[in-house]
Structure prediction request, 294 residues.
Amino acid sequence: MARGDAYNFPVVREAIGHADALYGFKGGFDRAGLALGLKAGGYWPGNMDKGLTNHQSTVFLFDPDTGQLSALVGGNYLTALRTAASSSVSIAHLARKDAKVLGMVGAGHQSTFQLRAAVEQRAFEKVVAWNPHPDMLPRLGAVAEELGLAFEAVSQQDLGAEADVIITITSAFEPLIMADWIKPGTHIACMGTDTKGKQEVDPALLKRATVFADEIAQSISIGEAQHAVAQGLIAEGDITPVGAVINGTHPGRTSEDEITLFDGTGVGLQDLAVASVAARIARERGLGDMARLG
Ligand code: NAD
Prediction:
């Protein structure tokens, strides 16, 4: 994306007026990787009572040379993986090398995936966690223990004071972490805010931090930056695509005391990339139902 080889189509996300569902499409085209398609899906709040996951999605991949459908790939598990990979990539490129304490804000379905991917990037020794519903924390604690990490449930202020890296992954609509609770040198990956109106951190934190995003257009409209931009605290031009850091055209973190913030809203190209890998592996292993389509 940052090289201009790939782009996302505008996101469609609608309340469809049935089953309280939010439904829509995220798609794009990667000319370099030859991935063309879209993810269709959304959120059905009543699914849990039916024994189903509330988030439901399917990825459609097309042959960019002919437009023929090349694969249909279930998107529920892959969305969890690609979202975890996204914050993990931000940690790899932006967190201090000596980060030891990981702060988790959120303890829902996505949180354990984020934790597993994060610990691959730094030699973390301890996880400190806070969740608005404390009864959900033991499940996250069990994963930390499985990974050999100490785990402690703490207050929001203590989390800010202790953590070197913070991941926020809640469905909050108001700030959970305030700007002056964060210590210098922290990297924070804001992953929960992916819709207009959602919010996880104090907008003043985006002014205090150097801000990166997966895609700037989404960051300022449906991401954490929507609030700081609306309040005039930062401008669109203050946000850097994390791809520029990965490609080496932006230095990323420039001092040990700098606070870096990654605003990850989730882009269609991530879904196409991960689904393409799954489809390729399925073909190589002779798995999946292959049908020739007109
Ligand atoms: P989940 O429903 O399993 O967990 C929700 C989490 O948010 C829990 O920690 C819960 O305690 C907390 N929460 C619920 N209501 C809240 C409220 N009103 N205020 C504050 N916190 C609240 O959801 P999940 O699958 O873990 O997803 C978490 C968030 O991540 C969602 O907002 C989801 O839309 C978002 N998400 C983002 C991406 C991305 O690419 N950025 C991808 C997948 C999910």
Q: What stands out?
A: Residues 79, 83, 106-111, 131-133, 136, 169-173, 191-192, 194, 264-266 surround nicotinamide-adenine-dinucleotide (CB under 6 Å). The chain is about 30% helix and 25% strand. The chain has a mean pLDDT of 96.
